[in-house]
Amino acid sequence: MKLVVLGSGTSTGVPRIGNDWGDCDPEESRNRRTRVAILVEGSDGGRILVDTPTDLRHQLLATGIARIDGVVWTHDHADHTHGIDDLRPLRMGRGAPIPGYAADETVRRLRQRFGYVFAGQFGYPTICNLDNLDRVRMVAGIGVTHCQMPHGPAQTTAFRFDQDGKSIGYATDFSAITGEMVALFDRVDVLVVDALRRQPHPTHAHLAMSLELVEACRAGRAVLTHLDKSMDYRTLLDETPDHVEPGYDGMELEL
């Protein structure tokens, strides 16, 4: 399996508009962060995109990705969904819409906001079929399991991807650790985990909470994501355990 970190930043990216780098060194290229997303590729080449962030076009061009075989969404917030129109070029040349999956409430909100994507209109084809995650166990030849996580007053979906004895976990936009999460990620090979900042936050994991989840589920390796402008790459790398590292845009890991 292969993990591609398409984007590793929080909802405003790094730097923020106004060229605000915060504590991040602008000379360190890995501090330049677009909105968060990953791509999981299986051993047979099947590809699952996780979320459609605002920066999706830029991310796909930067990584040379021109094909996906399915898409899943963690939740409906703008930084995770508002690049959905960039699925249109990925639909071209396909004989059918791209398979897409999300939890019930996310399905409802996506259909309400982006109806044309899932129904087509004015002679344009349907870009993506959208179904509930409970109806699927495998996407593009990769096993997909999931659970819901608290995201302040809302919820978001955690994912685990398995193939050929290898596993990748994805936990972004959560504000508390649950037993369901620990069970889902038990002994996962790589866990990509939200670590917004060092100080506690009402809707996101802070660094100590992120490290707590990594240890609780006994992940072999962890990649920190959804990082804000206070999380300088090299500073963070120096203060985390050897099996934990900050993610960055374009990062690729082979399992």
How would you describe this structure in keywords?
single chain, 255 residues, alpha/beta, Metallo-beta-lactamase, Chain A, seven-stranded mixed beta sheet, 8 helices, globular
Please characterize this protein's 3D structure.
With 255 residues, the protein is an alpha/beta fold. The protein has one domain (2-254): Ribonuclease Z/Hydroxyacylglutathione hydrolase-like (Metallo-beta-lactamase, Chain A, 4-Layer Sandwich). Helix content is 21%, strand content 28%. It has helices spanning 56-63, 78-81, 88-91, 104-113, 115-119, 179-184, 207-216, 233-239, and strands spanning 2-7, 37-41, 47-50, 70-72, 98-102, 128-132, 138-139, 142-151, 154-163, 166-171, 190-194, 221-225, 244-246, 252-254. The chain has a 7-stranded mixed beta sheet. A 7-stranded mixed beta sheet has the order 7-8-9-10-11-12-13. A hairpin with a 2-residue loop joins strand 8 and strand 9 (154-163). The model has no long low-confidence stretch (mean pLDDT 97).
